[in-house]
Design brief:
heterodimer; A: alpha+beta; three-stranded antiparallel beta sheet; 35% strand; B: mainly alpha; elongated
Chain lengths: 152, 161
Amino acid sequence: MNDRIPTKPGRVKLTPVGNDFFILERADEPTEEGTPLNKATLLNSENETRYNAETPNDALTAIGRVSELTIPADGWSPQPNAEGYYIRNVSVSWMRENFYPQMQLRTGTAAEIDDQTENYNLIKKVITANGMLVFCAESVPQNDINVIITGA
Amino acid sequence: MTLQELNLITDRTAADVLRVKELERKGLANMTLSEKTEYLNGLKGAYNFTDLNRVNTAYEIIGAMLTDIGEITHYTVKKDWTLYDIPGKTQLTAYIDIIKDIRSRLKTVQPLPEAPDDVDNFTYEEANAIEKILLFVEETINLIKQYIIYSGEVYAGEVDA
């Protein structure tokens, strides 16, 4: 992003258009035009949709978001679905179906990590949905799994 | 190329459509030379390959203009229709979907006509509406482009929300 560098800062040209109105044009003779501050440079429509954001700050918040989450050992579907996965929905208020967050096991003691890694590895797929994550496991985890979800 | 150079058509009337029907009833073999010339040079009341090529070219122009102001578009357009081509339902649906998308992108200076729902029972008013939408959106984009603030010109808090 480049700042505008005028040689005649603040100079404008006024062209009368009648009834006390004027058209104001920059006449600052810049050596560097500068980067426009507009939707194209700050938050274009693709990023607006991608991050479910109305402002650049919303987008940055979504990208930098970190949530700790527990995937409970209970509440999994009693039977596997057509793909052979057991399903568990977990509510995540900020999640949107078009997000691509990253997930990792939350760190703990060595014993906790060993115990959880085994369960964590049962999860073969995670689907993002509006307000939730859908976990798909090849068999039902026997313990709660603590994870960290980051980004969007 | 600009929309101005394309000479978009927004003033088709019922009389234009009746003129097409009248000539079609007569048949090419029974037309006078001037009628044949009129018929073959593209009648305003008909909708044919020339209209598809003109509007698809306009879609491409407006798509690029929208992208330029941050409304990213990825329109797939076909600008080489010929007299012998017959567009399929899928192609015509895509044609209408583009104008629906263009219409939805901006709040324009002038109220926009409705985009056609589909190409079934396509009317001359709907044909006019497509090209009016394109012109109104172009007008709005040009106005937006005239009001640019550059990095370094303002400080946080200087501009009211």
